[in-house]
Backbone:
């Protein structure tokens, strides 16, 4: 009679996929980084010659939320597990950086920006730059949303969230997306039995 086998210790348990404290710090930092210099958040240090436009508030809120989401999602590199998309470049910090600074230019006062004034003058800032700012805001939100989606798809999958249920060392063995014929063949376990002919 054999003794029952004790379950193996859960050595490969991945940390939580979302880090709320890091997300909160990123949210506050982004809010202050954009809100204070653009005077969307009223303060004694900065002022605006053009009042805050209605669409700047939701753009600032969306930028804060998307940046917080990106920083809150743990990368596979941080957890030491494989990622869902099988890439080591799962972070995409350039997209977030460009997205935040594009949002800053989008919600800033059009005639308060010295760079715009030097390039276009006051008339150009109001006639050319100001109408482009909502489009710039849309581009910034698309960049940030793309970075968040990419990071979410590349998150560690050792938390039991793998779509196919296969895991290697606590992580998905294959990406959960579409798998080509070569990858599908490589992902199948080998068998010792010869095929019947």
Residues:
């Amino acid at each position: 009679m054999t003794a029952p086998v004790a379950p193996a210790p859960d050595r490969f348990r991945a940390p939580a996929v979302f880090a709320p404290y890091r997300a909160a710090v990123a949210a506050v930092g982004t809010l202050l980084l954009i809100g204070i210099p653009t005077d969307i958040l009223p303060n004694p240090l900065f002022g605006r010659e053009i009042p805050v436009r209605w669409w700047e508030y939701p753009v600032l809120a969306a930028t804060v939320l998307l940046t917080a989401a990106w920083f809150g999602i743990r990368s596979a590199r941080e957890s030491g597990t494989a990622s869902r998309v099988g890439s080591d470049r799962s972070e995409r910090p350039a997209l977030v950086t460009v997205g935040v600074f594009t949002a800053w230019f989008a919600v800033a006062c059009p005639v308060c920006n010295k760079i715009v004034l030097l390039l276009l003058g006051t008339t150009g800032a109001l006639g050319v730059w100001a109408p482009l700012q909502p489009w710039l805001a849309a581009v910034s939100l698309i960049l940030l949303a793309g970075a968040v989606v990419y990071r979410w798809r590349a998150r560690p999958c050792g938390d039991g969230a793998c779509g196919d249920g296969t895991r290697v060392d606590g992580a998905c063995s294959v990406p959960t997306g579409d798998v080509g014929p070569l990858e599908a063949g490589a992902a199948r376990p080998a068998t010792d039995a010869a095929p019947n002919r």
